[in-house]
C-alpha cells in the first residue's frame, strides 16, 4: 500500500504548514484512522499504547473545529497528570501555531489558581487539564463549558486508576450533550465501556496494536 501523507487527510493548510515545520511527514496508524472520523463529527474510542501519536490524532481535528472569532472555551481535553496536560497543550499549541486566533491553556493542580483565572479571562478556546482542577474552576465559575463542542478523554484508563471517575463524569455533565466526544485508552475495561455507553454517541472503535514511532 502506498504510504499516506498528511495532505491526503484533508487537513487545513495552516496546520499542514506547522506539521511540516515539526518534521511530521507521514501520519501514524492511529492518526490515519482517527482523523477522518473526527473530521466527520463522529465519536471515537481509540485503543492505543503510548507513543502512537494520539495527541495529533485528536488535536488536529479539534483545532479545526474551533471558531477563532469565538473566545469561549470550545474544546476540553482531560488528561491524568499535570505533566501530560502540559505536554498535550504544548503540542496542540505547536500544531495551531499558524492558525490565527486559537489559544490553548493547560490547567492543573499545583499552579496557583489565580494565574489560571487570569489566563482564562483573556480568552482561550482549547483547555487541557486534570479533572480535579477543571472541576475546581467549574465550581468557582471561572470556567464555563456551555459552548464546548469537543471533549477528549486522554489516557482514560489512567484517569480511572487515579480515582478521577467522579470528577470526569461531573465535568462531562457540564458540557452540552451535542458535543463530539473522543476517548483514548491503552486498555478498554468494563468501566471504560460503561462511560462510553453513557456519554458517547455510537462511538467508532479504533484499535492500534503496534508502536508506530
Ligand atoms: P501518545 O499520546 O500516543 O503517547 P504522542 O502524541 O505524544 O503519543 O506522540 C509521541 C511522539 O511522536 C511525540 O514526540 C510526537 O511529537 C511524535 N509524533 C506524533 N505523530 C508523529 C508523526 N506523524 N510524525 C512524526 N512524529 C510524530
Ligand atoms: Mg498522549
TrEMBL record:
Coiled coil ranges: none
Motif residue range(s): Q motif: 4-32
Domain DEAD-box RNA helicase Q intervals: 4-32
Segments forming domain Helicase ATP-binding: 35-206
Family: Belongs to the DEAD box helicase family.
Annotated protein name in UniProt: ATP-dependent RNA helicase CshA
Organism name: Alkaliphilus metalliredigens (strain QYMF)
UniProt lineage: Bacteria, Bacillati, Bacillota, Clostridia, Peptostreptococcales
Range within the parent protein: 1 to 213 of 529
Amino acid at each position: 500500500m502506498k504510504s499516506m501523507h498528511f495532505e491526503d487527510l484533508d487537513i487545513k493548510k495552516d496546520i499542514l504548514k506547522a506539521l511540516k515545520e515539526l518534521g511530521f511527514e507521514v501520519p501514524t496508524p492511529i492518526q490515519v484512522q482517527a482523523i477522518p472520523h473526527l473530521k466527520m463529527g463522529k465519536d471515537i474510542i481509540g485503543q492505543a499504547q503510548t507513543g502512537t501519536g494520539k495527541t495529533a490524532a485528536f488535536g488536529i481535528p479539534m483545532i479545526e473545529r474551533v471558531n477563532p472569532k469565538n473566545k469561549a472555551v470550545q474544546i476540553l481535553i482531560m488528561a491524568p497528570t499535570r505533566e501530560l496536560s502540559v505536554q498535550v497543550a504544548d503540542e496542540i499549541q505547536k500544531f495551531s501555531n499558524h492558525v490565527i486566533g486559537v489559544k490553548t491553556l493547560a490547567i492543573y493542580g499545583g499552579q496557583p489558581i489565580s494565574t489560571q483565572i487570569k489566563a482564562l479571562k483573556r480568552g482561550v478556546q482549547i483547555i487541557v487539564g486534570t479533572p480535579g482542577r477543571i472541576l475546581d474552576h467549574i465550581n468557582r465559575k471561572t470556567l464555563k463549558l456551555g459552548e464546548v463542542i469537543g471533549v477528549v478523554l486522554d489516557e482514560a484508563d489512567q484517569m480511572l486508576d487515579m480515582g478521577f471517575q467522579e470528577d470526569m463524569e461531573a465535568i462531562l455533565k457540564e458540557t452540552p450533550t451535542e458535543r463530539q466526544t473522543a476517548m483514548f485508552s491503552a486498555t478498554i475495561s468494563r468501566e471504560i465501556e460503561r462511560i462510553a455507553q453513557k456519554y458517547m454517541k455510537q462511538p467508532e472503535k479504533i484499535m492500534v496494536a503496534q508502536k508506530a514511532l
